[in-house]
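pinging the channel bc i need a second pair of eyes. not urgent but kinda urgent?? the chain im working w is below, pasted from the shared doc
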Amino acid sequence: MLDLYTIGHVKRISPEAPVPVLCVTHEHMRAGGAGNTVLNLLSLGMQVKVIGRIGPDIYGEHLRRQLAEEGVCVENLVVDPSFMTPRKNRMMADQHQLVRVDHENPISLHAELEERLLARLPSLVKECDIVAISDYAKGFLTPKFLQALIKYTNVPVIVDPKGLDFKRYSGSSLIKPNLAEAIAAAGLGMEASLEDVAEKLLRDINVETLAITRSQDGISIFQKGQPRCDFPAIVHQVRDVTGAGDTVLAVMTAGLANGMALATTAQLANHAAAIAIERIGCARVSIGDLERRALAI
């Protein structure tokens, strides 16, 4: 999806309605959603291939061009004639978000495009060290395509899930929901302990590891037959949580692809998320950012 930022100042209330008047000073566009994960992977020194969908519009073309200019392989960013490239326009005044305007039509991936991508899948993942699935529930990840991606991949598969049915991701190596998503998917209610939620999810889903992100409380790792491991976050100032989950997915993907231990990877992801939410908008976190954060602790 494409993230648009319309930035300016508010100096008065509109005479037409009780709403602020935003006097725009500048605008910019950048890859959002799964694209934000891609940009963070690039900042961490990874080489990236993307599989995804855009619409036949100027926003999709901008997205393709921006990723290609960054060095991303975009050969499998397919154009769906019936689809609108999702875009989110954040109206910002003095670093505060006033409103977000979304343009999207989440529809299932066209069968012809699905078959084309399924045929390419073996060659696509052949040279990959790891696969990261960023699910935003826009219809691209059909059950058939999702299971093929997980089943026929001989490398670790990390999933940032969406929705209530985590069984869709059965067979993946690691699932990374946030706390609210994990509680909802477990169906145990808000009064359930985190241990009960994790136990239910691990029992119901064929997955090796569950990494539950808990905002300012950090990340909790659960594995079958293993004690819970908590990795607290150190956040100096919460300014904007936009895209923090994408950043965590990117760092965990990069860490595990490079053979890092899960505990080390989780702690690095914590640092990266803390850096991201201290900045405005979707932030790219680099290796240098992580080094400076680690040295400052």
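so The chain is about 35% helix and 25% strand. and Residues 262-277 form the longest helix (16 residues). — does that match what u expected or am i reading it wrong
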